[in-house]
Amino acid sequence: MRRTFWGRAFVASSALAMLALALFSVRLMENRGEAQAAKPQATAPDFSGIWLGKGIQSLSPSDPMGKKPTGSEPDISYTPWGLQRLKAANPATGPDQTFLNTNDLALKYADPDGYPRASIHPMRFKLVQNPDFIYFLYEYNQSYRPVAMNRPHSPDPDPTWFGEAVGKWEGDTLVIDAIGFNDRAWLDPIGHPRSESLHLVEHWRRVDHDTLVNDLTIDDPVAYTKPWNGQLTFKLDHSGDLHESIYTATDELRFKNDILNKQKENQSGK
């Protein structure tokens, strides 16, 4: 009897010890998991602030002011469709500029600049970021561009002025992938065309405290025979908050009537 009793007691105590050990192991693993979760994740670079770029006229690195003859840039290779669209453009800048007869929709009808043209406008924009979105808030015409972080594109995004942009961090670089553009906006003031097949990839880097650099790759097989690259540089602006700056079709009409037409009258009266 005693041997049986002590044998059973030993088995019971052994089982309790194993159960306690198992519970301790589970709790230890939970504590480790909680500790790992509590560890601060690697923080993304801070791009927030108000930024100002140069008022260039062309995304072509070889001709940023758009002074070369139409379609002659060595770094851009056009399809017949793309070259035809470029030659049909009547920009208000460049060697063939014509403000009165421009067909630049952004000037003639105050249409949105679209993207990437909005970033090369000689006015400021503000970057606001959180883990889920990065927002580009443009001073000109109070427009904005959301970049959804760490998610895929929609299966078939509708064509829009600014496209659909998704982003991710690769070390200190913000990589933005954008599709879903319409073909109504120009890439830049000089009139480089875009189609609904445009695929834009950007690599944003903060090279120093006061400088952001955006390296763009423009891949549009309808307009260009091969992808081409551009680069934009922005400086941190310390002058204060953004201000309202809205351009409307009535502003365009007033400018023509009050300034351009008077200039014509003065010239003809001489």
Describe this structure in words.
There is one protein chain. The protein is of the alpha+beta class and 270 residues long. It contains four helices and nine strands. The chain has helices spanning 2-38, 80-88, 105-108, 249-269, and strands at 49-53, 125-129, 133-138, 144-149, 164-170, 173-179, 199-208, 211-219, 228-236. Strands 1-2-3-4-5-6-7-8-9 form a nine-stranded mixed beta barrel. Mean pLDDT is 85; it is low at 1-7, 19-26 and 33-41.
In short:
The protein has 270 residues and is α+β, with helices and mostly antiparallel strands. It has helices spanning 2-38, 80-88, 105-108, 249-269, and strands at residues 49-53, 125-129, 133-138, 144-149, 164-170, 173-179, 199-208, 211-219, 228-236. It is built from four helices and nine strands.
